[in-house]
Write a structure and sequence with these properties.
mainly alpha
Amino acid sequence: MVYIFDKINTPISHLTDKKEFYQLLTYTDDVNLNEKLQEWEQFYNFNRPHGSFKGKTPYEVLKCKLNN
């Protein structure tokens, strides 16, 4: 998986992946798994609020840092 802030939240993100992606996942083949993974990455980085970012998404945090 690709994360915007991979080094900052790696252990927590792996736990999140396990709880929110892999345990809830149903897929039929590798192509389907890859599609679901891409959907998850999009949601995780652009839509899912993160506690470590005070409820902001990784994208929102990155955008703020780039604008400052």
